[in-house]
Design brief:
single chain, 5-stranded mixed sheet, alpha+beta
Length: 489
């Protein structure tokens, strides 16, 4: 029996090497284990000796033992899924056995009284085996087997491709046809958003496909560090400016996380892997959104005792307001299909009001502007002020507007008109369309990149790809544009 057990574990280890990547659901191994172990009752009816081949039957029955011990903890939840399932099943086994053992013992006593104990044992075991097969069959037919993390991520990406930009091809050739005044920065797989930390003198670019945030030197444009987010894509970024240090806030599917940016940049490795579950040194984490998009901090919040940050939740058609200190949910603002988000600075030469500017993607294709007022309790109240644009390609029309930013020095709103492959500019004084630049080039796109373009109504610049995320350098007037190969689909 000992030799058979060891041989069974050896076979189980071999199956693990061969099938671990193909059979990833732990429930399948549990069912296999239950079926094999349920057949152990046949051993009393078999004859074992040193020469018989029946010893192999015992070894085969122990095969699942090694396989069942091989599952690792899920990095995001910190829970060993297989252990959790087995604990549940074992607990159910104990409870059910407690109720049925009395009936089974009564049945065995009757067979013993009739001097047929072996027949009674066989009858009960056959009944249990049949019931086990029925339970396994019902489970496979009606129960929803939990998908693997890889399948969940693939499904989530497929869903996002139906709403957001498609999955690009990874090519290392620089984009052709760049104008002399166009400053090419770097090839990225799928750049989505870009932000500047003035205190730390760096540019941050989110790379959705690579699930990373790339940091560049603000002056030299040299790459400083790449921060990889374990098992999650990251798209939208936000910088909380402090007197000395800055904080990085980013959206990753259902999560909004805040990190000390100086601490991230101070890590010795040039390639950093952030393991959200096992190494949670974030300042706070929020799951207030089902699908977080654009993030922005209002200007009045910087001087307020209760600092807040706003996040677009496109899945719930809301904008959520979070406490900037702890990430707790404060309120929600209903709005259809919110994507990009920006705030205007109040009390400037162009306007005294503070506006919240929200881009809305298909089927809206508009820019909605809210004006801030204080409610009776002194909190923020955002009233609908104006809606700009409609579906189309004319000068005052939009097709899936994405990134948006305010130019406070010139009193304008700059929006990435993604599917029209251009950037449009709106006045903050009268909300009229005053300029635009870019349209699709005739050449086929071959990669993604980050571009900078001077704001000029007369420019003939053509985008190589589709403008997605925007950021304005308030010190130099440079406009950073993340371009994506695919339209907003």
């Amino acid at each position: 029996m000992l030799g058979g057990s060891n041989f069974g574990e050896l076979l189980g280890a071999g199956l693990l090497f061969l099938l671990a990547k193909k059979v990833k659901k732990p429930t399948i191994w549990i069912i296999l284990d239950a079926v094999f172990l349920n057949l152990m009752w046949i051993f009393p009816f078999l004859t074992f000796d040193e020469k018989t081949d029946n010893n192999l039957i015992f070894a085969i029955c122990i095969v699942p033992a090694m396989v069942l011990t091989s599952d690792e903890a899920n990095e995001e939840t910190g829970v060993n899924e297989l252990a959790a399932v087995m604990s549940f099943l074992y607990s159910c086994y104990i409870i059910i056995t407690t109720f049925i053992v009395f009936g089974l013992s009564q049945g065995l006593d009757r067979f013993n009284a009739e001097k047929r104990p072996e027949l009674g044992f066989m009858t009960i075991c056959i009944l249990l085996t049949v019931l086990s097969f029925i339970i396994c069959a019902l489970y496979l037919l009606f129960a929803k087997i939990k998908p693997t993390p890889e399948e969940e991520e693939l499904e989530r990406k497929n869903q996002e491709m139906q709403v957001l930009s498609g999955v690009p091809k990874e090519v290392d050739v620089p984009p052709p046809g760049i104008d002399p005044y166009h400053d090419y920065v770097d090839n990225r797989t799928d750049p989505s958003d870009v932000k500047i930390s003035y205190n730390l003198q760096c540019i941050l670019v989110s790379d959705y496909e690579q699930a990373s945030i790339v940091c560049y030197d603000l002056k030299t444009r040299e790459e400083l560090k790449t921060i990889y987010i374990s098992t999650r894509q990251v798209r939208h970024l936000c910088i909380e400016e402090n007197e000395i240090d800055d904080a990085l806030i980013f959206a990753s599917s259902t999560l909004i996380l805040k990190y000390d940016l100086r601490r991230l940049l101070a890590l010795p490795e040039k390639r950093v892997q952030l393991k959200i579950q096992t190494q949670p040194f974030y300042l706070w984490k929020s799951e207030a959104c089902k699908w977080a998009q654009g993030i922005a901090i209002p200007y009045h919040s910087k001087a307020s005792s209760t600092k807040t940050v706003y996040v677009c939740d496109i899945a719930c058609n809301t904008i959520v307001q979070l406490n900037l200190q702890n990430g707790e949910l404060i309120s929600k603002i209903p709005i259809d299909r919110p994507f990009g988000l920006a705030f205007s600075q109040p009390w400037t030469n162009f306007t005294a009001a503070e506006y919240m500017i929200v881009t809305q993607v298909e089927p809206k294709h508009t820019i909605t502007i809210f004006q801030r007022e204080q409610d009776v309790e002194g909190g923020d109240k955002w009233n609908h002020f104006k809606t700009l644009g409609k579906l189309g390609s004319l000068n005052d029309e939009l097709r899936n507007p994405c990134g948006v930013v305010c130019d406070h020095n010139n009193g304008t709103i700059i929006v990435a008109d993604c599917d029209n492959a251009r950037v449009q500019i709106v006045s903050l004084q009268n909300f009229e369309w005053i300029a635009r630049f870019g349209k699709p080039m005739s050449t086929s796109p071959s990669d993604h990149y980050i571009s900078m373009e001077p704001l000029s109504p007369e420019t003939s610049f053509h985008f190589t790809y589709y403008p997605y995320g925007l950021c304005l350098n308030e010190l130099t007037g440079e406009l950073f544009v993340c371009e994506s190969e695919n339209k907003f689909e």
